[in-house]
Amino acid sequence: MEQNYTERDIREILITEEEIQAKVKEVAAQISKDYAGKDLVAICILRGCCIFFSDLMRNVTIPVDMEFMATSSYGNGAQSTGNVSILYDIQTDIKGKSVLIVEDIIDTGITLRQLKKLLSGREPESIDICVLLDKVDRRVTPVDVKYTLFKIPNEFVVGYGLDYAEKYRNYRQIGVLKPEIYE
Ligand code: IMP
Ligand code: MG
């Protein structure tokens, strides 16, 4: 049988599909409890978060408005540019609502910090952050994160929505690429 391109290019699996799914269910249950009775708007930060967001929302059992937003901070590489701009904005008015920003990964923290500040200006009742992955050692600016599924070491990871040069988002697990892929 022909080898899947991801199996060929991944050096090491950091988090398996089973581990991801178990944790997603746990956090979705917590969110359902924490926001019961609230007017919840969950915002998916495209594109890295699309797969995580779908799985998370499917496991949330309270009403939720699913919104999408695209920002740019990274090009094709692995370096943060430091400024965040909105490429696509949410379509709903979040004034007086409980906002949950859902992101794939927090690295330097620059993107999420700027995004939270921007959305706070629209006067939501509350604004919290949920991230799939946290590269704790890489933080350059403090950000309050309410839900973190996994803390990971400082390595460039792909899969479950995360890309390298737009590839590997469809890999079902979270893994580290072989060094020769970057070279
Ligand atoms: P930062 O927290 O502003 O540095 O940027 C976080 C963004 O960088 C995430 O939304 C990802 O798009 C991207 N990013 C950071 N680390 C990785 C990684 O290991 N793999 C894939 N994308 C990453
Ligand atoms: Mg992203």
Draw up the topology in text.
Blueprint: H1 5-9, E1 10-15, H2 17-34, E2 40-46, H3 50-58, E3 65-74, E4 80-88, E5 98-106, H4 110-120, E6 126-134, E7 147-151, E8 157-158, E9 174-177
Bound molecules: inosinic acid and magnesium ion.
Categorize the overall geometry: globular
Strand order, largest beta sheet: 4-3-2-5-6-7
Q: Beta fraction of the residues?
A: 25-35%
Give the SSE string. Answer: HEHEHEEEHEEEE
Termini separation comes to 28 Å
Enumerate how many helices there are, as a single number: 4
Question: Low-confidence parts, pLDDT < 50 over ≥5 residues?
Answer: none
Description of the molecule:
This protein is α/β, with parallel strands linked by helices and 183 residues long. It is 23% helix and 33% strand. The chain has four helices and nine strands. It has helices at residues 5-9, 17-34, 50-58, 110-120, and strands at residues 10-15, 40-46, 65-74, 80-88, 98-106, 126-134, 147-151, 157-158, 174-177. The chain has a six-stranded mixed beta sheet with strand order 4-3-2-5-6-7, with helices on both faces. Helix 2 packs across helix 3 (50-58). The chain is globular and about 50 Å long. The two termini are 28 Å apart. 28% of the residues are buried. The model has no long low-confidence stretch (mean pLDDT 92). Bound molecules: inosinic acid and magnesium ion. The site of magnesium ion has 3 residues, from loops.
